[in-house]
Amino acid sequence: MTDKKIPAEPLKDGPGAAAPRSDDKPVAAKNTAPKPAKPAKDSGDRSEPKATAKSKLKSEAGKLSKQAQEKARGYADQGKTKATGTLHDVSKLIGDAAGDVDTRFGKQYGQYAHSAADAVSGFADTLRDKDVDDLVEEAREFVRKSPALAVGIAAAAGFVIARILRSGIDSAMEAED
After folding, report:
1. Segment 11-20, tens digit of pLDDT
2. Per the record, which residues fall in region Disordered (predicted)?
């Protein structure tokens, strides 16, 4: 007895269709799904090559960066002007207080107050005479040379600013009550 494979009979549709036998080989189904259509070529929507688009994007980003730098410099100049004015006001305040210190505690202590007023005034003049870029470079150099001191100064300045803001908020709340 030889094992001959009997070719599978085609399946019939309907109620009298024969069920496939277990020794039948599965018939591979033909791919009858329609092939996907090839994408249509752009009709001019992307006329520029990718390299040109990238360079255009980079140039636009460069323009925006320059505009942002110019605005930042403008704000820094305004801040420098305000800080210089404030420092001159503080210097004047210290100088006025130095006269009171002279009369109350003596000329020796008044001299300290005058020296402090002169130092603040000198700092304000130095600040006014320097360009913003020079000030930024000096600040970077200071942080490179002594980062611990820079962090300490930043923390102290943050504490002072927080106290000023808190006192302003407290004053506003008291005014509302």
Report:
1. 555 555 555 5
2. 1-89
